[in-house]
Amino acid sequence: MFTPVESSLGAIFIQYATGSYMATEGKGVGYSSTLYGAATKPNVNNGSIVAGTLLSCAFVKKLLAAFIPEYPSSNSNKASDLGSTSNYCTSGFLIGLGSSLGHGCTSGHMICGVSRLRWRSIVATFVFTITAVITRAILDHNAPAEAVGEAVVSASSYDSNFTVFNENKTALLSLLAAGFANSYLLLPYLLKKIKAKHDETWTLVGRFLSGLSTGFQFGLGLIISGMASSSKVLGFLSIFNKDKFDPSLLAIPIFTILPNILTWSSTVPTNESELIEKKPVFENKYDLNFSNEITYPFLAGNAIFGVGWGMSGICPAPGLIGLFFNGRNGAYWILSFLAGQFTGKQIEAYQSKSKITTSSTKPKVN
């Protein structure tokens, strides 16, 4: 069902998370690398973001139950069935492999990369979105209507009384105000004070608070906007099916990416030479990649990501939320994602080694 108000509010929370993290920590929020790092090389940065995201799940379950994500279920084990274990495992692996080879995901490329107007991220977003739409179009005609859940409702159909919003209006607007105050007033103030102490223990505390806040607000935004519900995402990707298309998630570029573009264009470095003059609140410099290299493995990786996304409607950050709300299927997805990430990194290591070997054995020309 079309949810313009809820999706717009959720997108604002995601903007709070990404805008605050960039301003204070000097880096984007990339959940594919965060999840893999938390599983293989945990540290205060990735651990606090994961903890904050899971905390948002517990918060929603307790206080905003109307927004608990929806997932299709199936007794079948066919990979073509949305709720099957095979579908979750296959899509999770493809998302992990694709985000590894494509160096990013929906959070890293689409939200943070496009917000920086980075050409490589714009290309990546175009490739995985188009691939996901095509994948959904191919699979959609075989999927029973009930498997997609709320996404089968026509885009022209919505609750004109905005019942869910009105029932939770006080809590949502209070959270919105508190989120703004936390992200742009309280947290920067605390981190400035902590940075001035020049103490390693307090520095760790500051990084933990920053990551926890970012993960909580990002998770809250995903859940409230509907992006954590695979049914909502699948509806958004079903643009060739007028009975299933749900444009709600267009709120993400409008209320997350556009404000970031307007803010970051003057505050965030656009090239390495600006790293000296522009600095984040808490760190000594921005930690950003400025490469715009487009390679065939990069394009292939994002296409693979798109296939996985189109199969299940789940990408890394919603995948983490599914670990809380989607039972064993959520666990299967996460494990498959980590396996895909590992495979992608092995492929890249092999390619790098092959390049070095070829370069060293190439005859010199005098």
Automatic annotation (TrEMBL):
Domain of life: Eukaryota
Subcellular location: Cell inner membrane
Alphabetized UniProt keyword annotations: Cell inner membrane, Cell membrane, Membrane, Transmembrane, Transmembrane helix, Transport
A Pfam family hit: Sulf_transp
Principal location listed in the UniProt entry: membrane
A GO-annotated cellular component: plasma membrane
Presence of keyword Chaperone: no
Residue intervals passing through the bilayer: 119-139, 171-192, 204-228
Keyword presence, Transmembrane helix: yes
Membrane topology reported for the UniProt record: Multi-pass membrane protein
Name under which the protein is recorded: DEBR0S2_12266g1_1
